Amino acid sequence: MDSGWRYRVASVAGVVVLTAAAVALVNNATLQSIATTIPVFNRLPTDPPTGSEFTFELLVTIAVVVSVFLPLYKPRPRRILDAIALAQKRVLVAVLVLATIGYFDYTYRLPRLTVVLLTPLLLVVLPAWFVWIRKQPSSNGERTIVVGDDLKVIEEVASEVDGTLLGYLCPTSVITTVERTEAIADGGTNTSGLERLGGLSRIEDVLVEYDIDTVVLAFEHADRAEFFGALDACYEYGVNAKVHRDHTDSVLTASGGVGTLIDVEVEPWDIQDYILKRAFDITFASAGLVALSPLIIGIIVAIKAEDGGSILYRQDRTAVFGETFSIYKFRSMIENAEDETGVKISDEDAGGVDPRVTSVGRVLRQTHLDEIPQLWSILRGDMSVVGPRPERPELDSDIQSGVVDWQKRWFVKPGLTGPAQINHVTGKEPSEKLRYDLEYVRDQSFSYDMKLVSRQVWGVVVDIINASKDS
Q1: Pairing between strand 240-244 and 261-263?
Q2: What is the DSSP string of 87-130?
Q3: Short-list 77, 261, 271, 304, CA closest to 156
Q4: Half-sphere exposure in the Cβ direction for 208 (13 Å, CA)
């Protein structure tokens, strides 16, 4: 079975079709009558739904099962027993969800006999489907490629690879500057005889075409655009990533790594926590925008009344894997404040006075109300409520050159608040800020997020009270 999008489409389609067929089968009146001859089941009523009631039951079941099976849609090499175990666990979770829905809300409930009969059927057919389409581990070990921008590093890393090494990817410009046995744009070999499969732009095609299990990164420097772009491709296609031990300062690595090549933790969040986190982000941002709408109107009026300038201020910030996105704030400085000073951290972050900040802006910054428009970035999915605070790319470049481990912050989605903000640490103290951010990266969980949000909300309330007293 092909990896990438073909696998995803097939796995989702199979779950939908098999779940629908199972629901239709267990709602057969004859089958239910036979089932009730079993002593344990004879207390359950046989009342299979028809018409619109059956359609509704079918759609609810499909929606629950498809959602619960989300972790299995990413193509990963799995052994048969692993595929069966993972699929059966997901079936049990789906049945528990369906039973819970029926317990709390009669409108969406499935008949108890339907749930009872559906469970063993799904425990067989869905694991069988994922065994049938699974991305099989190579019989010769993991299928691996090396991706990098320096042939010496590529050769060094290639010698450490276990399993089947199919070739390497590197920019054409690198090939033209060194001796090689063959020189063509999208292929060739290096001095060690390792086949070149193309340039870095072909990484996604190669991952699918060669059914790659593992990518080993062999960059001379952990460049944001190329190094983290390759990691992004690994994440998207469900491929394992490894990095030379010399570059572990730039990535989030799996715990307990030994040897020259270390596993990269490209997906640190557990899927259940991720779903809860995203649901909370949407709920929090939506509720915040609605609840704060009167205050938002008041802030708009105050900004316009002070100097008649623009209401919002747009900034580029660094996101996951070093990509950038735009955020908006209520303007708290004079118009075009950075035309003369350039991009720099505000003096207020160090406890000083920034002459560029307006009177209204000073209140907004003191109470954190200038951050309200970022709730929209959370709704869009660019940010989360909790995570490392995103820095501006210009400042990020300066900081990462002087602070070890800074890029590890890029392995989780940036947030509106986090441990650094809770402890009043700003970009003026990058090493201290990084310490708190890495604490979050290591300990992140939905429950940890809730603790941080509670502390941040309380802190904002205190700041607003103090600001009102000062005025």
Answers
A1: antiparallel
A2: HHHHHHHHHHHHHHHHHH-GGGPPPHHHHHHHHHHHHHHHHHHH
A3: 261
A4: 14
Q: Which two tokens mark 300?
A: 């708009």
Q: Residue 198 belongs to what H/E stretch?
A: strand 195-198
Contacts of residue 243, defined as CB under 8 A and 6 or more positions apart, other chains included, come to 216, 217, 250, 251, 253, 261, 262, 264
SS3 assignment, position 324? strand
- Reduced to 3 states (helix: H, G, I; strand: E, B; else coil), residue 61 is helix
Q: Quick one: tokens of 71? A: 């972790």
pLDDT digits (tens, 9 = 90+) for 55-97: 888 898 899 999 999 878 877 666 677 788 889 889 998 888 8
Residues of 237-273 as b/e, b for ≥16 C-beta within 10 angstroms?
A: bbbbbbbbeebbebbbbeeeeeeebbbbbbeebeeeb
Token duo for residue 194: 């390792």
Do the bridges between strand 415-417 and strand 384-386 make them parallel or antiparallel, or are there none, so unpaired? Answer: parallel
Angular region, 78: left φ>0, alpha ψ -120 to 50, beta rest: beta
Q: Residues 213, 139: contact at Cβ < 8 Å?
A: no
Query: pTM for the complete prediction?
Result: 0.52
Structure tokens at 382: 């660019």
Q: How many CA within 13 A on the CB side of residue 435?
A: 7
Highest mean pLDDT among 32-36, 42-46, 401-405: 32-36
Average pLDDT over residues 402-406: 51
